[in-house]
Amino acid sequence: MLKLAVPKGRLEEKVMKFLRKAGYTFEKESSILREGKDITCFLVRPFDVPTYLVHGVADVGFCGTDVLLEKETNLIQPFFIPANVSRMVLAGPRGKGIPKGEKKIATKFPNVTRRYCESKGWHCKIIALKGSVELAPIAGLSDLIVDITETGRTLRENNLEVLDEIFVIRTHVVVNPVSYRTKRKEVISFLERLQEVMKNDTYEKSQ
Q1: Same domain for 108 and 133
Q2: Statement to judge: residues 11 and 70 lie in one domain
Q3: Cα separations (Å) of 54 from 61, 116, 189, 207?
Q4: Could you count the other beta carbons within 10 Å of the beta carbon of residue 70?
Q5: Which of 61, 71, 74, 154 keeps 20 to 30 A from 48, CA to CA?
Q6: Are 77 and 22 in contact (CB under 8 A)?
């Protein structure tokens, strides 16, 4: 039996749809668990998906580029699943640009932000937040933010603008390297079934 780490929230419904289309059924369902004959799904916070795989609790997971780069994990990434593409961006108050000298940057992604600042040769003070980072420049906590945007609507509503795109975020299928060796046949069969379903889904939408 394969164990999957499925992120709660906006991706949960899409992943579960693909799993059911691939023929997987669940006899027991709760807010945190789906149990079937062939697979068990752990429904976890998106940031916790790599942790379940790294510790060997899950064999396969679904994870955004943002989480993978922030967690700096060494997981196998065979392919993406079709999902809305978003971006990790540097943003700040409209019309003010990027300040010179030391920059205070608020973010939920301190590791991503640190590497980005290093790549630019900037001296930055990184302020890690758990809640809405858009408030930080308004309140005077930071000069800039590093955050995820899909449409840019929330930024515009808070009089912020994108100053730089750091990377595009996709949803990856990720595999525990140990599981790939010890459950190779099961893992490959699962990935092939999932890919076939996604291919058909994409084809149907194009018709």
Answers
A1: yes
A2: yes
A3: 11, 25, 21, 40
A4: 20
A5: 154
A6: no
What order do you get walking across the sheet with 144-149 strand by strand? Answer: 28-29, 33-35, 39-44, 2-7, 60-64, 160-175, 76-93, 144-149, 103-107, 124-128
* Contacting residues for 164 by C-beta, under 8 A, at least 6 apart: 89, 90, 98
Provide the domain limits for residue 53: 2-84+169-206
CATH (domain of 160): 3.40.190.10
Tell whether 104 and 40 lie within a shared domain. no
Separation of alpha carbons 114 and 117, rounded Å: 5
**DSSP H stretches of helix in 56-183:** 65-71, 110-120, 135-139, 153-157, 177-182
Return the SS3 of 84.
strand
Shared domain check, 45 and 107 = no
Phi, psi torsion values for 123, nearest 5 degrees:
-95, 115
Strands 60-64 and 2-7, bridge-based pairing: parallel
At 131 the three-state DSSP class reads coil
* Kind and range of the H or E run holding 191: helix 184-206
Per-residue pLDDT of the chain (207 residues; tens, 9 = 90+): 999 999 998 889 889 999 999 999 999 989 899 999 889 999 999 999 999 999 999 999 999 999 999 998 889 999 998 877 899 999 999 999 999 999 999 999 999 999 999 999 999 999 999 989 999 999 999 999 999 998 889 999 999 999 999 999 999 999 999 999 999 999 999 999 999 998 876 544 544
